[in-house]
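Worked Example 4.2. Consider the chain below.
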Amino acid sequence: MTKRKPSKLVDTSVVYCGDCLEQLRNLPDACVDLIYIDPPFNSNRNYEVFWGETKEKRAFEDRHASTQAYIEFMRPRCDELARVLKKTGSFYYHCDWHASHYVKVMLDQIFGENSFLNEIVWKRTSGRKSERQYPRIHDVLFLYANGADWTWKPPKVVQTAENVRGHDLMEDENGLYRVSDFSGAGEGPLRRFGDKEIAPPKGRHWMYDQEGVDDLLAKGRIAFSKGGMPRLKTYLKDLTSIDIGDIWTDIEPLNSAAAERLGYPTQKPLALLERIIKASSNENDIVLDAFCGCGTALVAAENLGRQWIGIDISPTACRVMAKRLRDVSHIQEDEALWRNGRGFVVRDLPWSIEKLRELPHFEFENWAVIAIGGRPNKAQVGDKGIDGRIYLADAMPGKTGEEAGQLDFMDEWYPVQVKQKDKVGRPEIDAFETALRRAKRKKGLFVAFGYSKDALAEIQDFFKREHIIIVPLTVQEILDEQIAHKLA
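Applying the procedure from the previous section yields the following structure tokens:
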């Protein structure tokens, strides 16, 4: 992998928290090589964002009352995306059936009909049942070029027993093989095959001269039909790779057991973004995702030696993708390292008491748990007073995913309770004590803006009575990064 050189036009390795329309307006013209977006679909349904909250749901695009409203929301953002894309750049818009036809018309108007390259169909699921129509099992990716000389490196796939279609495979001591015709159109002379001279079929010729026939015989590359006619053997291991078309069925969607699964409802597989980035960019090119979600495009870009810029309006999403970049791509979130071209930074997070007070409760709750190094619950129905868990560093597994992500098979964890309150009182502490007893924990953490004297006194008394520790953390302590000594 070549060493990346920072762009002279724009800061990269940055996650921006905010509306992409505002953030894009700060970028210069023609500064990005590849854009991929997977914006919220106009689906008229709630996406339970980040581990399936059911107490507080964030409706992604229910705020769009109609398809027209959705297109009006996306048009100025796509205008800005087209502006920042280089003339050698490519643009991918990931969507589903709800508004795809209207999105295509909008993109034709922005980029020009002649700039449209492909409608890619990705089979995202196979287990759908529908009583009165064909099951909907695919997403669509619209691909546009921004000029006449776009970057393109055709993706290929190695031929396997599953994708070699139209041929019956056979097997011998050298492996799987298929047979094909040994002759071509046009008259030709006979050839000697061992101790026999065989004439080609009428109007045909053997495709190899005598030297070629002898060489193939020596290599065991010629088989004979029941009628004694030669056939060419081609082993599967020697088949060249084939170009990938515009229907993608070879990239599996994320299932509940997928190692990379975070619980984000619209999360796309890393392999999907890797294919796009490899095909439409070069090393050190700049990749932009303006609706990052959980950051799959950023992780793929980082791992493939590209520069990248991410934007998302959700503070929780920005913190989740930052953690993912640290854990999966092994780069540090550090201002000094970033300035030296080695780390990354997150910009414009609501890192103030005032802004955190204004967050929806579920956003605040997730922010608090993640900020202290914990994992929010996937579902909060029946959470019994526990909003997240902190696992000891030496208890972390090598894999993540739905099963490993909850780490239910491990018992080394601390409960976390979060209240978006100025002054937590004794009743909230009493309730958390009950949760700790029920979970059989000897330590728990509480996050709030502040605590009453009665609450703090009860925390001390609880330890004296039952030797169970409750660590009261304030939002200000988290913002000031003054919690390490309390978490020790």
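Residues 14-153+243-347 form a domain with the Rossmann fold fold (CATH 3.40.50.150). Residues 42-63, 394-409 have pLDDT under 50 and may be disordered. Compare this with Example 4.1 before moving on.
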